[in-house]
Amino acid sequence: MSKRDELIAKYTADLKDKFGVHVDMDLLTKVTIGCGPSIYNADSATVSGSDESELATVKNNFLIKKLGLNDSADLDKVIADVMDKYGQSNRNKYRVVVYYLLTKHFKKESVY
């Protein structure tokens, strides 16, 4: 099993255990690949829910640039909802899981 496959298994478990969602493995794999080498770095593989600049990066670089959404207060609200569901006390909010959930929420699977 490759390192990427191990990480995908970890992300799948997070999505099932913490969010109770049925995982679209094809989409999860594409989101994982889309994150590139950042998934192998402990710092960049996670999203800090309490760091405003980190949340702004998710909004600007992922939601607006990658998914092509228009900037609005709704984007901040959805990011905050995902962070709350992940649990503020949970230190390992995986970037791939956050991006997967945001992609599903905005129905932008076609981007991948």
Unreliable spans are: none
Q: Give a short account of the largest sheet.
A: none
Order of helices and strands: HHHHH
CATH superfamily, called what? Jann4075-like
Tell me roughly what share of residues is in helical segments. 55-70%
Helix and strand topology:
Elements lengths: L2 H17 L5 H10 L17 H15 L6 H14 L8 H11 L7
Brief summary of the model shown:
This protein is an all-alpha fold and 112 residues long. It has helices at residues 3-19, 25-34, 52-66, 73-86, 95-105. It is globular and about 40 Å long.
Summarize the structure in words.
This protein is mainly α and about 110 residues long. The chain is about 60% helix and about 0% strand. The chain has helices spanning about 5-20, 25-35, 50-65, 75-85, 95-105.
Features:
5 helices; 112 residues; Recoverin, domain 1; 60% helix; mainly alpha
